[in-house]
Amino acid sequence: MKAQGLVQEAYACYLEAIRIDPHFAIAWSNLAGLFMEVGDLNKAMQYYKEAVKLKPSFADAHLNQGNVYKAMGMLQEAVSCYQRALQARPDYAMAYGNLATIYYEQRQLDMAIHCYNQAILCDSRFVEAYNNMGNALKDAGRVEEAINCFQSCLVLQANHPQALTNLGNIYMEWNMISTAASFYKAAIAVTSGLSSPLNNLAVIYKQQGSYADAIACYTEVLRIDPTAADALVNRGNTFKEFGRVAEAIQDYIQAVTIRPNMAEAHANLASAYKDSGHQEAAIASYKQALCLRPDFPEVTCNLLHTLQSVCDWENRDTMFREVEEIIRRQIKMSLLPSVQPFHAIAYPIDPLLALEI
After folding, report:
1. Its Gene Ontology biological processes (predicted)?
2. What domain range is 342 assigned to?
3. N or C, where is the chain less crowded by C-beta within 10 Å?
């Protein structure tokens, strides 16, 4: 009944089974599963506890109880449940996989890799274990082994979008752009709900000067998730580089509406306002960005330049000192200065410092 979507009928059957035999652990576990599915974690926990109390060797109930603990953020308790599931069933691949996921989230990479490997030894066709172990190996710096895991995942499931994307990411980091793009395109071809390959392919298109293709990728990301503020900022940046500043401004405005504390969006909105001649609006947005992120060198320098362009000299000396300190720090760290050379010549700063810029 549950498999057919008849949840209320299934609920009634489980209750009737428990009424007939209060010691029927499977009925308690199945009842817990219903509450887990509707998000009532407390009820689910209560019934899973009853199931494992009645049948301590009930591996599935221990596993699912661990899943409830994990959903509640009680990770150590979840680990204990997964370990009890493995005591009851030593070859339980899913328990190893879930245990590994917690270790991975806690950045205990060696433990995560060990448990994913154990999961695969228990079930050589455990697709997600290969993909997840690949992520753990990559994070541990064992990139060649990670590639082997992702490839093993694809042998079992050729259209696995995450494995395709993960391989693309590795080749992107290796600057093998064409190979990376082919994996991202393959991932996009097999799924319509995954944003990361679209975002990454957009970066490649942008680097290649294919702005229209990059914009199309970001637009698809926003179709998947209209509240993706990062995609709005990235599309706005692409519009701006493409000379479509008015559209960039609209994207930045939408981004700060969705995520008001996103300093980068305020900063980019300010730059777009500045480029389109709206200096006062630019100043307001630069100031908002600095309120959110006081240590934002590019914004501090751009704000000073914009204030100078409208002859606003309030706190002039303090701001120039701050900008001079930023420039010295950036040059010392071999970073590209946030002040352009011709702007520096016009500023009352040390001439030798301007020459260094």
Report:
1. protein O-linked glycosylation
2. 313-357
3. N
